[in-house]
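Sample pair:
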Amino acid sequence: MSKQINIKKIFLANSEINVMDPVNSMQLDDYTVNTEMNCKSEYDEITFNGVEIYMVALQFQIFAEVENEPMYNMYFSQNGFFSLKGYEHEETVEALAIECPQILMPYARLHANYITSQTGLAPTLLQDIDFREAYYKEIGKEYK
């Protein structure tokens, strides 16, 4: 049986941005934003209409500063419902920790860019995350 990940739904579970000093941000013409990002991925198995599916959440915390002054804090959770077919138990965990977050990442990148540009700030550009490397590091397995 071939392995298959089916996307049931992709959605933004929550989103918040706090601009620290909107008045001073208007005075900035040419500036460099230093950002710190934390990303956490988690999943839950749920039953929907008698079918086992998984909800995967990709949670972000992004902190930005200009010239050592806090500019904004952003928090959001990009989520998805997925069904998996043809996976053994260990493979299921890897799919939920690696492949599903990779599917969600472009949506998270788009949201971060959109929400910061709507505040009048420089758009946040999320870089790629190697979810395989992060997962292997977490479980103590050598990354190849």
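The beta strands are 4-19, 34-48, 51-66, 69-85.
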